[in-house]
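Good morning N.,

You mentioned wanting to compare the apo and holo forms, so I went ahead and generated the holo version with alpha-D-galactopyranose. This is what I fed in:
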Amino acid sequence: MTMKDKIRNKFQELFHTEGALFASPGRVNLIGEHTDYNGGFVFPGAIDKGMIAEIKPNGTDKVRAFAVDLDDYAEFGLREEDAPQASWARYLFGVCREAIKRGGRVEGFDTVFAGDVPLGAGMSSSAALESVYAFALNELFQLGIDKFELARIGQATEHHYCGVNCGIMDQFASVFGKAGSLIRLDCRSLEYKYYPFNPVGYKLVLLDSVVKHELASSAYNERRRSCERVVEAIRRRHPEVEFLRDADRATLDEVKAEVSAEDFMRAEYVVEEIQRVLDVCEALEKGDYETVGQKMYETHAGMSRLYEVSCEELDFLNERARACGVAGSRVMGGGFGGCTINLVREELYDRFIAETSAAYEVRFGHRPKVYDVVIGDGARRLEA
Ligand code: GLA
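and this is what came out, ligand included:
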């Protein structure tokens, strides 16, 4: 049975009617990690995997929701004090609340959802969930919210209802994704540009370590705080500086003695990474994928040694890619587990996957999961 059929059947069974179907994707990111909340650039794209939700207003002030993959049901009201317990339901609740805070007249609805984007693999399953509901509520209740604000609703949901002080990248990619294109996004101005991505002779593939680290969200928030502390130090001399985006190596060096060694390392990584995104854009425009790949390795090194968001399994996958002669490889997303993203010449692909999977199994007792990247569309209604 397809995911859509499962959802349709369950909806019928629970609510004895039919609603509208919406879909929203997860994302990959070619380069630009932990730069979004520093006002920098990112280079994500939506993927062909995500969340699908069926929804119908129910004329009450309650939401009745069923999560197919978790086989779990929740019911909640729409006032701040009605927050549900289940963490998956808090995403839905958060989206409703954030839409209401923006003046939207959200009313009760029935919904069933399911997804095929792996959870906790760094492909933004949570952004997919937020944006499918932000998009659907906007249509069904005619809220008149633009796409930028739909992305911000998802981000604010993470901040206020899920405890993650994330940037805007994941929700933006999930809402604005376009099949076949990556998006270069300036996270300060939200100016963006689609880059048709068709690296002739290469493939993009994700290797999922299948490792999830507890405390990933608190470690994520700590990274963000480090960056903010460095900005505070810089601002004492340069009050015009708003984000690490506005700093360069020289500005960082000025405050080296005033921040902790750890915070300094974090900031060093971010300043370098923001530049790498721009370098990658330039290389892409010339069709120079070997340089793109080289920058990916540099990102991995920075994320592993300076930002310290990699782990043994991801470092292993990265080293294997290098040993195999893969053009580029790095940990993708927030880190602390999840995937590496690899830019592989076609003739190397089979050997890379076979050898790396086997070596990984010997070392860690299980194989990584393999996902070929297909760049798909952003949030949408599936059928009228
Ligand atoms: C997570 C966050 C994003 C971004 C990445 C790291 O996916 O949700 O906002 O910070 O980590 O680039």
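The longest strand covers residues 44-57.

Happy to go through it together on a call whenever suits you.

Best,
F.
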